[in-house]
Amino acid sequence: MVFLPKSDIMTLLESAFGSIGHSFACTLKAAKEQGEHEIVIPQGIYHIYADECAAPVVCVTNHGHNGFKSTAMAIEEMSNLTIDGCGSRFVLHGAMDFAIIRGSKNITVRNLTVTCADTCNFQGKVTGAENGNVTIALEEHPPLILHGDALVQTFGSQWEPMVRTLDYVTETGELRRGTGDVHFGVPFQQIKKVLDGDVLYLYDVPDMPEVGDTIVFMMPRRCNQAFLLDHSENILLENVTVHTCWGMAVVAQKCKNVTVRACKVTPEDGRCWSAGQDATHFVNCRGKITIEDCCFENQLDDAANLHGIYTLIEKVIGNRILVRYAHAQTRGIDIYDVGDHIQMMDRETQQPSAFANVAEVEILNPDLTILTLSDVEGEITPGMIVESLSDQADALICNNIIRNNRARGMLVAVKGRVEIAGNHFHSGGAAIQFESDPLKWFESGSVRDVLIADNFFDDCRHGKWCRAVIDINKRPKTVEDFYYHDTIVIRNNRFTQCEAPCVWADNVKNLVFEENEYICSIPFKAEHCIVNGEKAD
């Protein structure tokens, strides 16, 4: 196997250790030392094993498994590098990332496919469903045991229960209409079960699936991503396909200018699911996020999630505040930089009442950080939440196909200019949701300037997630004459087969809904909004 930069200055044969993972590490090291700017990987199928790869220590947002992360490519502190897979297929064995790009600039990865030989999610076919009893023939799956009525997946001496299942129409790969996370009628862990080899029997099931349907079993463990982009700038993923991964396909945290172009997250080999969670996820990013000409289908959560992180003020001493990363899956992300402009707000109303600049950052541990503030305006008290106004990005999301996934098409919570245009949505929940959660996930924030135009919303929200095709959620508490979101324009879109409202909006100062095509009984609901220039309460 040969790794060849186009310049032909560096040619590396497979390592004497016989490990492709080690070969990648050697190639990247040589490219960095010799100033190479392109690595071309001959087309082929490459099997990469987690225990033979580099394993940098990283903290990853919205996953909850921090520490050593095995990865085929550890691209750290590098710049001006293109990796061309030439159509190669990379099969990952064990819990691992394909690429971790950290502290790097001007990095392109293109023309390759990533899949996993084993993951924590699996599926089975319904072979019998009668009189409250269901029989499921399990397909390729990890080690399983029953612990009481909990179906448990084992990881050596550790184990975790399967807590969620999804019902798919096998022939089309679509979610069964009207179903959601609790499609058996009661939470999955409450159903009586018998496991006999590769056959799972369920008893006293209130809501029966159809014989022939595929049941996808999800586990809460989010070990690894396909791509982790961390504290990096000007990153392009182009013509990259991810068939499956343990967690999200692409995570970008504290990055500037990220483009995902002509990429796919899509299942193969008869699977009804692809990525274990979101297709793409962006946290506290700056510059511009671009997602264009992509196809994201059958991932087990959103196609795109763009948001920031709220931290919680525990103590205030003079001009210093002690903040906590309040959700376990935000530990260690370290979002603050000297010079950041921040705002403080009430947790329930999310109305800003104080502003400041960050003069000094002292990280105590993954949970707690001390911020020394300057130019403070307003009163700061314990219990407030803090949001960075500097970590905000523009976003262009255009000409994508988003379909057959659990939950939402996308979640948008960034304050830059956002354009969502020319996309085809067919999602089980809302196609687009505007959400900011100060109580559980601690995800920020409001939007200021959003255009949703020329999209096709094709039978969206046909499952049990969210309230509407475009869902702009309520705040925990409303304040008269304060609007959390600023401007959202919804124009020239087509909505078909809408069983829920096209739009359900709350807390928007300037909401425009015009020149849209739809057939539904309740096209629009609004509370505490100004809609087309008129107040709606």
Could you provide a short overview of the structure?
The chain has 537 residues and is mainly β. 3% of the residues lie in helices and 50% in strands.
Kindly describe this structure.
This protein is mainly β and 537 residues long. The strands form six sheets. It has a 31-stranded mixed β-sheet that branches. It has a seven-stranded antiparallel β-sheet with strand order 17-16-20-11-12-19-18, with no helix packed on it. Strand 30 and strand 31 form a beta hairpin. The protein is globular and about 65 Å long. The model is unreliable at 1-17 (pLDDT under 50).
Topology of this structure?
Layout: E1 2-3, E2 12-13, H1 20-34, E3 38-40, E4 45-49, E5 57-58, E6 67-68, E7 71-76, E8 79-93, E9 97-102, E10 105-116, E11 122-130, E12 133-138, E13 144-147, E14 150-155, E15 158-161, E16 164-169, E17 174-175, E18 192-196, E19 199-203, E20 214-218, E21 227-230, E22 233-242, E23 250-253, E24 256-261, E25 264-265, E26 280-283, E27 286-292, E28 295-297, E29 304-309, E30 311-317, E31 320-324, E32 341-345, E33 352-363, E34 368-377, E35 385-388, E36 393-398, E37 401-403, E38 410-412, E39 417-421, E40 424-426, E41 432-434, E42 443-444, E43 449-453, E44 456-458, E45 470-472, E46 485-491, E47 494-496, E48 503-514, E49 517-518, E50 524-531, E51 534-536
Parallel strand pairs: 3-8, 4-8, 7-9, 8-10, 9-21, 10-22, 21-23, 22-24, 22-25, 23-26, 24-27, 25-28, 26-29, 27-36, 28-37, 29-38, 36-39, 37-40, 38-41, 39-43, 40-44, 41-45, 43-46, 44-47, 45-48, 46-48, 47-49, 48-50
Antiparallel strand pairs: 1-2, 5-6, 11-12, 11-20, 12-19, 13-14, 14-15, 16-17, 16-20, 18-19, 29-42, 30-31, 30-35, 31-34, 32-33, 32-35, 33-34, 50-51
